[in-house]
Design goal:
The protein is mostly helical. The chain is about 75% helix and about 0% strand. The protein has 7 helices and no strands. α2 runs antiparallel to α3, α2 crosses α4 and α6 packs antiparallel against α7. It is elongated, with a radius of gyration of 18 Å. The termini are far apart.
Length: about 170
């Protein structure tokens, strides 16, 4: 139905999306670089927009989840480079974006959440490890970073709640 050149064009676009315009091909820490860029872009969208900044960013993240799933599928279909090649980094954008949507716009919280997201994404703690093993496809690429995001959200919020509690306790004495 479609020509080979059409499929080649789709594959080229999918590769651009999956690698976040080539960031995935950086020789060192492409996932961390992608997460850091996501943090900076999110800061500008959320804090420099009108009252709907978080809504705009949430819509972007939702769209990127589906675009990332599709583009990762296209890249995996043609490459056979394993089930989660390091050069696919669109999942880091979605995972880091979810974390940033779930916490207040405090710069310290954003930095801590960035570090925690990267830790959980790299460490693949339980059950994130199971997600990666169960879904050895494009969905698995996206879902394991959502698992890392959930851990980072929970841990960031617990950390800052304890910090606030102990800060209040120390001032009340």
């Amino acid at each position: 139905m479609f020509s080979k050149s059409f499929y080649k064009e789709i594959h080229s676009i999918a590769k651009l999306i999956a690698t976040c315009f080539g960031i995935g091909y950086f020789p060192k820490i492409p996932g961390t670089i992608t997460s850091l860029i996501t943090l900076v872009v999110a800061w500008f969208i959320i804090t420099n927009s009108d009252d709907f900044g978080k809504i705009y960013f949430a819509l972007i993240i939702l769209a990127l989840f589906f675009l990332g799933w599709f583009s990762s599928h296209c890249v995996l279909k043609s490459k056979r480079n394993g089930h989660d090649p390091q050069f696919i980094v669109i999942d880091e954008v979605v995972g880091q974006g979810l974390v940033l949507l779930s916490i207040p716009g405090d710069p310290l919280m954003w930095i801590v959440s960035f570090a925690l997201f990267r830790y959980f994404d790299i460490a693949k703690t339980w059950p994130i490890h199971l997600l990666e093993k169960t879904f050895k496809n494009a969905f698995g690429i996206m879902i394991d970073d959502i698992g890392a995001a959930l851990y980072a959200i929970l841990t960031t919020n617990i950390f800052f709640a304890l910090l606030a509690f102990y800060t209040v306790e120390s001032f009340s004495k």
